[in-house]
Predict the structure.
Amino acid sequence: MDQTAAPRSPRLLLALLAALLVVVVATSLVLLHDRRDAAGIRVQRPADIGNAGWTEDSAGRAVVAARTAATTYFTLDHRTIKADMAAMRALGTPGFVDEYDARAKTLAERIVAQDLVLSARLPRDGTATEYLVTDRAVVLVSVDVTTARVGAEGTTRYRTRVGLDLVDGRWLVASLDEVA
């Protein structure tokens, strides 16, 4: 060890750390200001604080739309499969409907071939807003799905991430994915 080297000044280190802190705070303030000023985009308050938290404001309607979509998506009956799938299509954006239709035929064939009846039930307080701004939302929804066929029945809990777009004042499903 070289004992002739001068010890580093703790003041220099403190000054560097203080300057770094100022740069980080200034950058954060600029980014926050830019985000708030984005044209037409406004962060919304979550609307999923218990069932009593839902209202008829935009945030509340997003949560209700996500819950409706999750229930509709998982409610399928081999006797009414076309109507069930049409109900899901009615809740989606054109892009979502295209994706849904790409998988719908195979799913419908399986449900009819096995005489399945799937019914969805939402557990109390099983919804959480993940992302919510003026015209886009992502809502996590838990769904208990009971699958029944002659001689057998079972219930499985699914967690879904429902992406929504606000289109002409109505929240429409843009994506619906199962969350592991």
About this structure: The chain has a mean pLDDT of 85. The CA atoms of residues 94 and 174 lie 8 Å apart. The two ends are 55 Å apart (CA to CA). The chain has one domain: 51-178.
